[in-house]
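PROTOCOL LOG
Step 1. Enter all chains and additional molecules of the complex.
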Amino acid sequence: MNDKWSWDYVAEILPDLLRGLLVTVQATALGAILAYALGLVLALLRRSQIPVLSQLTWAFIEVIRSTPLLVHIYFVFNVLPQFGITLSPLTSGVLAIGVHYACYTAEVYRAGIDGVPRGQWEACTALSLPRGRVWTAVILPQAIPRVLPALGNYTISMYKEVPLMFAIGVLDIVGRAQEAASESFRAVEPYTIAGLFFLALSYPAGVLVRRLERRVGYAQ
Amino acid sequence: MIRFDKVVKRFGDNVVLRELDFQVRPGEHVCLIGPSGSGKTTILRLLMTLERVDSGTIDVGGECLTHMQHRGKRVPADEKHLRTVRKRIGMVFQQFNLFPNMKVLQNLTEAPVRVLGLSRDQAEQRALELLEMVGLRDRADAHPSQLSGGQQQRVAIARALAMHPDVLLLDEVTSALDPELVADVLNVLKDIAKTTDITMLIVTHEMGFAQDVADRVLMFDQGRVVEQAAPGKLFTDPDQQRTRDFLRAVLERR
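Step 2. Run joint prediction.
Step 3. Record the structure below.
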């Protein structure tokens, strides 16, 4: 048996690492849903006719984008409780990553909406379509397919940034690997497997996104 | 039906319309001709409320489009006022502007259902009649991207008619088409001009079409009406040198 790599040890820590994987996937999925939804809301607020609303949204987006995710994670977990809002580590992490990435997806949606030709808006005016229908029936159905690849790329980034939540005690893949390594003083196996877990999902997801990009490209 | 009173429109320093006055009677077919940049398209866009006047007023069907009464004062129209007046107006664009995410049929039913409050069945029946009229009934389930430019434009005409407009604005509707597709579109429009009493304002470079369909032709240059007359007179014996030059240039281009 090679003393640099022990399969027995791998077998021992694998269940914990898989539990960590599950947490990472969960955090990514929930964070992504929040980022997609809130991002769209921010993009629409940014376009609001009410100047105060669009300026506040702009400021919020700029502040979040100019500060690190780790700060947002600490902020939600350590500062919000002082205002009476106490959340579990995982919920705090999901909230932080979701809001953080919403400020990026808002830009993606903005570009997608701006990409809808002006003639589409004019046709809506010529038909007197009500404002809500203009968005739900004409503009968003054309904008969203274009932004799917970019949303996919941000989802992959989110997946790889979930380990930051270990800072507030979320036992994701890296958290579990770190635990195993510090208990056994063996670091090679846990970190290697943790890396492989990331690769195993990120790479295929990246390939899918690129395929989607090509399809969206053809469709236009 | 339509009345422009001292309408001024500027884009930055560029004055597109200079105190323009003109009127269109109900049911009249008026062609607007002139060099590009002379303000023809701007007239249609002002009527469709895609642009706002800088000064002057526009009335449509006895209602003021550009202004409204607010607490006894005359103020620029707000969005709500514009919405009520522009329901009487339909427009067909140079670039068709069909909704690519909807099938042909839904392009024709969306506004009648959402704006006029028709039931889906009523709207579909009416849509199929209109598609029949433009010769595309069998393409109701196609997506716009599967149609030729000429077919898309005929769908766009049907879509505008589905809203029962009193006024139809046609903005260079054949300019983006391959030459062999132009005739079908123009035939549909001639048909509409003959069989309906819709008031039509037509910006076109197709002088033969203008001759056929227009009651009156307005020659524009630099934001002013240079000359207006029945097509028989204006095309054969124009009064103004500017009109003669323009017509010669258009005819030589073909």
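Step 4. Note key features.
The radius of gyration of chain B is 18 Å.
Residues 179-195 of chain B form the longest helix (17 residues).
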